Amino acid sequence: MSSAVEVARAWAAADVDAETRAELEATIAAAEGGDELAVAELADAFRGRLQFGTAGLRGAIGAGPNRMNRVTVQQASAGLAAFLLAREPHPSIVIGWDGRRGSEVFARDAAEVFAGAGVRAILLPRLLPTPVTAFAVRHLGTSAGVMVTASHNPPGDNGYKVYLGGDDEGSQIVPPVDGEIAALIERAAATPVSEYPRGQVETAGEGVWEAYVAATASLGQPAHEGGPRVVYTPMHGVGLETVEAVLDAAGFPPVTTVPEQAQPDAAFPTVDFPNPEEPGALDLAFALATAEDADLVLANDPDADRLAVAVPEDGGWRMLTGNEVGLLLGWDAARSARGRGVLAASVVSSPGLGAIAEAHGLEFVQTLTGFKWVSRVPDLVYGYEEALGYLVNPGTVRDKDGISALVRVLTLAGDLHERGSSLAEELLALAGEFGAFASGQVSVRVTDLARIPAIMAALRAEPPASLAGLAVTAADDLSLPEHGSIGDILRFALADGTRVMVRPSGTEPKVKVYIDAVSHEGSPAQRVRAAQEKVDAIAEAVRPLLG
């Protein structure tokens, strides 16, 4: 422990942030007093460097190289600046931030380091949704963009997300660029951040946000008469202001907002995890929707790049899966594509989008997991990933965008409402036309990260022979070249055509299992029921495999 304490003391002495320095000093004192939790915290905080990958940086806020803090953010910025300067003589970057703890300070630190290194640095005018930053990279024509956010991660986390302009068209970074930047960050970390030069930072005017609002509003077409009554929540995040402005500009009636979750609050006091997928996260929205006799519940995650949709069912509310929304929006996009363009989804998303694409004479592409891949598909007209991420406007934003998706969902729901139908009824109609594609997910959250590779290794070594009474007819390791070297994903094919995929989460300490089943027999309702029964049975069968 003594060596860990010595390293921690050296960090504390050089820490530029009084808050994290005080927290670290308290942890050091507790560790020296025999507190085992404090000893473990020091060991983890100083066991290595927070990994810079295709999601940029993301981790717990705190002191130490394995945490998100002002030092690691400035080191990352110095490394990214070196990368940009090696690419072009006069690079530029736009920086945005959300309402999480430390986001604005991190954004301003990053901007000053970029400017000091010779990169033109433009800060967005205030905290704004992630899609606005992604939009700004293209709108301003910058070389890159950084968004300080941890999206839907737990309250104690923050992150640093990187986009590239130019030929990358504002998409997130992908290999090998992430490795090149990581190496430059390591080099930059050899110099104390107190010695980094600082430069003059520009602040963008409101025109960037206004342009995003106008571009996103243009995607919407309100119902002529009435329309569904909507309850909305930004989940303590930054979505409300922009959502209200977009809906007003598009001519939609106002939505009813969950008051307890309306304003940014880094503590996320009303939810255990600020992720619409988590059980209980939408309880306040459902209660308000019931009281208001609403027709629809819409929710963004805290940085508004994801969208959740819920519909009335049996006197309560049912949240649609990401695949259900993905297929509805895919069908919506396919109708407008008129036989030209590509629909895309990540490999863990529903194969149902392929059936929709084929029926409309469109190409369907499956990508590696993550929007960094979905967004890069040539001739893309629509792309999605099952984790509530949708890209409906690739001409302006090359990332998932929960606000533009909200506009298209409202447009579709309004059109159906005028015709006496609903999103739920349209899903039945799609089941009748294309077959019922049901999906489910089982995930295990871990505190010991070593459990994740252990679970994956055990499944590789001994794949299940059967699941829920169905023989496993193929067990494929998608990390191998013969299966495309897609990533750390295991795919199991079952005798009835059901697909099961297992992978570590790219953003959270979880192992995730994705289950996709299809039924073509019987009425639309019977198809939906049969497919869901398959998914439910498999979900129960895979839980023991995850320990």
TrEMBL record:
Residues 444-521 form the Alpha-D-phosphohexomutase C-terminal domain. Keywords: Isomerase, Magnesium, Metal-binding, Phosphoprotein. PROSITE patterns: PGM_PMM. Residues 50-188, 224-312, 322-427 form the Alpha-D-phosphohexomutase alpha/beta/alpha domain. It comes from the Bacteria. The keyword Nucleotide-binding does not apply. Pfam families: PGM_PMM_I, PGM_PMM_II, PGM_PMM_III, PGM_PMM_IV. Its cofactor is Mg(2+). PANTHER family: PHOSPHOGLUCOMUTASE 2B-RELATED, PHOSPHOMANNOMUTASE 45A. Belongs to the phosphohexose mutase family. This is Phosphomannomutase. It comes from Agrococcus terreus.
